[in-house]
Specification:
Elements lengths: L2 H20 L12 H11 L20 E4 L5 E3 H4 L5 E6 L4 H15 L5 E6 L4 H11 L5 E3 L7 H6 L7 E5 L5 E4 L8 H11 L1
Parallel strand pairs: 3-4, 4-5
Antiparallel strand pairs: 1-2, 1-5, 3-6, 6-7
Helix pairs in contact: 2-5, 4-7
Keywords: Cytochrome c-type biogenesis, Disulfide bond, Redox-active center, Signal-anchor, Transmembrane
Pfam families: Redoxin (PF08534)
Protein name: TlpA disulfide reductase family protein
């Protein structure tokens, strides 16, 4: 093999390697890391288990919508998991300052007698950042991860506004009601009043 042929071959190999390196990768840069990478963060966060599907018909607006359980990475059929009993759904992101105030309030509310179930939905931020935030705040609410991009399936189905946090009451009958007042919960009395008002 002549030196010219060797150089041509080397140049061709480098060109192919460069093309492969520049090809777009699937997924979002902020998407969840593989579950084994999240194991330490999941352990530190110690989240409550995500709700399991019940026997009631799925919530129509969320039918067929799935997300990853933030606590263990298992797939959750959100429409089935929220069916049959009232649930307060809170959409948040790790970069959202008002969410940092509200999440501990929701944790306290969830511990009170007569509270409805609370499910967190992390959006627009890496799963690891969300787990670290929940661990830092001491919030152990069950939560699903709706992806790091702008439009995860849960967020799309709920038509979540651009400003976060956003809360919804899913009624026992499967109706979804956006809670507009207050937009950010400052205490458990506000949560209880909003849930009762939306029921």
């Amino acid at each position: 093999m002549t030196s010219v042929t060797k150089w041509a071959l080397a140049a061709a190999v480098l060109a192919v390697a460069l093309i492969v390196a520049l090809l777009p990768r699937g997924g979002d840069d902020t998407a969840a890391k593989p579950s084994e990478d999240l194991a330490p963060a999941r352990s530190a966060a110690a989240l409550q288990p995500c709700p399991a599907p019940g026997s009631a018909p799925p919530v129509k607006q969320l039918e067929g919508v799935t997300a990853d359980c933030l606590g263990d990475g298992a797939r959750v059929d959100v429409g089935k998991a929220l069916a049959g009993a009232p649930v307060l759904v809170n959409v948040w992101a790790s970069w959202c300052e008002p969410c940092r105030t509200e999440l501990p309030v929701l944790q306290e509310y969830a511990k009170q007698p007569g509270a409805v179930r609370v499910l967190g939905v992390q959006v627009q931020s890496p799963a690891e950042d969300g787990l670290n935030l929940l661990a830092q705040l001491g919030v152990h609410l069950p939560s699903v991860y709706d992806g790091g991009g702008q439009s995860g399936p849960v967020r799309t189905a709920l038509k979540v506004p651009s400003s976060l946090p956003a809360s919804y009451l899913v009624t026992a009958a499967g109706e979804i009601r956006f809670i507009a007042n207050p937009r950010v919960f400052g205490n458990t009395d506000q949560v209880r009043a909003a849930v009762e008002g939306a029921s």
